[in-house]
Amino acid sequence: MFWNNVIINRPVMVQEKIVVNNRNIPEPMKREIRQRCGFGCVLCGSIIYDYDHMENDWADVREHVSNDITLLCPNHHREKTNNLISREQVVEANKKPFNIENGYSSPYSLNFSGGVAYVVIANNIFTNDSLLNIYGGQVNPFVIPILIDAVPVIAFKIEDEKLLLDITIVNEFNEPIFLVRDNQLVVNSEAWDVDMRGSSLIVREGHKKIVIEMEFCIPNKVIVKKAKIKFNGVVLDLKEDHYILNGKKSGVFSHNALSSLVGFSIGQTNRFPRGVIHIQKVKRCSNV
Ligand SMILES: [Zn+2]
User: Fold this and answer.
1) Distance in Å, CA 14 to ligand 1 centroid
2) Do 176 and 241 fall within a single domain?
3) Closest Cα partner for 70 from 178, 205, 46?
4) Residue 270 phi/psi, 5° resolution?
5) With b meaning 16 or more CB within 10 Å and e meaning fewer, what string describes 39-67?
6) For 3-30, b where at least 16 C-beta lie within 10 A, e where not — what string?
7) pLDDT at 148 over 80
8) What's the 48 CA to ligand 1 centre distance in angstroms?
9) What sections of the chain are H helices per DSSP?
10) CB 114 within 8 A of CB 219
11) At which of 102, 126, 161 does a domain end?
């Protein structure tokens, strides 16, 4: 659908690893399992999943064997527990995980609703709340913290009384690794790591390299905790109180209680208003 011919280098787990006498699966092992399973249930591709010991339950053997652990969504996990799916069927699915076969995850529908949206990035609030908004008194149909070349990289829009989230996270070659379109969240199964835990999500492009870390606060708020956004040759690294544009410390990004519809606008804005921070001309990174 969104991507073809995406090639992202990451190690493929081949070696079996064993950890004993620790109830928690170690984080590196979890990540390897997520990568192997394409970040979703091996049967249906859902990004809401549990780590399942296929053959031997932890309580019986008190060890975690990496190649024996797979990802199952709550429905398929329950079916396995109730013997409505056999262990053999899960083992077979684990060899050909749903998302790896498709190249991307099954879409997950985020449950945003209402007419007022909030995006919080560091000390900044972006909202169409007429009480907070600097434009005052208007009900605006969008909230765009980051706009690059007239593309809302992170945005809420209000359409037909529905609150819809759009997020575009691409790699340095402008190939999508994580997308939200009209609340439908889809993950590239070849991403380095996409870790959805509860309502929090972290996308990494390498060890300790976080692309975006955010929390979905249903019904109407997203909190972005960390972000290093790449798009069309622009690299925008948002820190607690400043931002770094294409590797150069560029300015203060902290206006506290001041709220606005558009945060950053970089390049042309077309039909959208300019952001609080507007940078028309920016040198693009060459490898994009
Ligand atoms: Zn499933």
Assistant:
1) 24
2) yes
3) 46
4) 50, -120
5) bbbbbbbbbebebbbbeeeeeeeeebbbb
6) eeebeeeeeeeeeeeeeeeeeebeeebb
7) yes
8) 8
9) 27-37, 58-61, 74-81, 87-95, 98-102
10) yes
11) 102
Taking the centre of ligand 1 as the mean of its atom positions, its distance from the CA of residue 170, in whole angstroms, is 26
Whole-angstrom distance, CA of residue 277 vs CA of residue 131:
22
Instruction: Enter the tokens of residue 198.
Output: 């509860």
Residues 120 and 260 in one domain: yes
How many whole angstroms from 82 Cα to the centroid of ligand 1?
14
198 and 94, same domain (yes or no): no
Chain Cα centroid distance, residue 260: 23
Domain that holds residue 201: 108-279
pLDDT in tens, 72-102: 999 999 999 999 999 999 999 999 999 999 9
Residues 113 and 95 grouped into a single domain: no
Q: How many domains does the chain have?
A: 2
How many whole angstroms from 194 Cα to the centroid of ligand 1? 17
**Are residues 245 and 228 both part of a single domain?**
yes
| Domain closes at, from 50, 71, 102 | 102
CA of 77 to the centre of ligand 1 (A): 7
Q: Which of the residue ranges 61-75, 127-141, 230-244 would you say has the lowest mean pLDDT?
A: 127-141
| Average pLDDT of span 266-276 | 88
List pLDDT tens digits, range 201-259. Answer: 999 999 999 999 999 999 999 999 999 999 999 999 998 888 899 888 787 766 554 55
